[in-house]
Amino acid sequence: MLINFPYIQRNSFVHRLDPRAKFLLLFAYGFAAAETSNFWFMFFGFVGAAIYYSQAHLKWSETKRAWIIIIILNIVIVFVNYFLSGGAVVQGVDLTHQHTLFSIPFIGLRRQLLFIGPAPLVFSVESITFMITQGLRNFAIALLAVPLPFTTDPGQLGITFKQMGIPDKFAYAIDLSFRFLPTVARDFGTTLDAQRARGFEIDKLRGGIFSKIARLAPMVVPVVIGSVIGAEDIISAMELRCFGMGKRSWLTELHARRVDKVFITLTIAGFLVVTALNILGNFYTQGFLHVLHTQGIPPFLAP
Q: Are residues 111 and 23 in the same domain?
């Protein structure tokens, strides 16, 4: 709740890029990455996303809080998924003939009663490759998503989705959702300063977990009530202006440059190529690129 994504005005390639191109790149890569678990596809996608992120010229001090959350969340997702599945969930690979490296005693899920018990945790070439692929996929998507709020003018968010074909109501709802988190963070900071001025020491809460949650009420209740009141004020203002009764006009309008059109064209073409390969079965056991079925693992690692 304390993470705020402020817009940073800077003259970079990503800053100058049309917002529609940024969102389209994120959505296209996200859907394309979900269609395959090939290691090399994810690796080159990660490299491309890293190059794209570097062109935003964002400093670590500016995005540190966001990246800390993303890194922790990604590690938890990848490792918890591996431990819960016992290394037996690998997309697009036949694990009946996996190349096991070693295994360790572990507690896993079972089909018998109690549904939990001792089970070996298998580490194979296929499962480890899939785990690394998951991490690359998540980090690549994050590298494309993080620059969006930092390089896109908040005043252009609504019109961006409107000109992408989304109705006014949904476009404005997305615009408000991007503004909600900074607003809550601002209200939380204001409430925290006010409570500290009254002698409330949030850093010295004592007792158990439930006791600490109960003592946080002077912080949580004002923020929640303020958010509800603010939402009602926005609703009332929109109703007074007859929002949704007819076609809406927007103050700004986006005009794609030649480089934006080329970027959008390449993004759509890349997504269509990956989708076509998937439909034709090239990520499975048939098709002229059926080698992708093996996750791109070199033959000397999985002979």
A: yes
> CA-CA distance, 124 to 132, in Å (whole number)?
12
Strand partners, 170: none
> Chain-wide mean pLDDT for the chain?
78
32, 266 in Cβ contact below 8 A?
Answer: no
**Token duo for residue 169:** 């109501």
Asked whether residue 122 is domain-assigned, the answer is yes
Tell me the pLDDT tens digit for each residue of 151-182: 988 778 888 888 888 887 888 887 777 777 77
Same domain, 13 and 126: yes
Structural domain range at position 203: 184-252
* 255-285: pLDDT as tens digits: 889 999 999 999 999 999 888 877 776 655 5
- Residue-wise pLDDT tens digits, 213-223: 666 677 777 78
Q: Can you state the percent helix, strand and coil of the chain, rounding each to 5?
A: 65, 5, 30
Using alpha carbons, select from 68, 79, 67, 84 the residue that is nearest to residue 130: 79
Q: pLDDT at position 122, please?
A: 73
pLDDT at 148 over 80: yes
Could you tell me if 176 and 155 are in contact, meaning their C-beta atoms sit under 8 angstroms apart?
no
Q: Look at residues 147, 133, 176 and name the one whose alpha carbon lies nearest to residue 297.
A: 133
Pairing type for strands 116-124 and 100-109 reads antiparallel
215 belongs to a structural domain:
yes
- Write out the two tokens for 292: 């992708």
Look at the chain and report how many structural domains it folds into.
2
Are 259 and 248 within one domain?
A: no
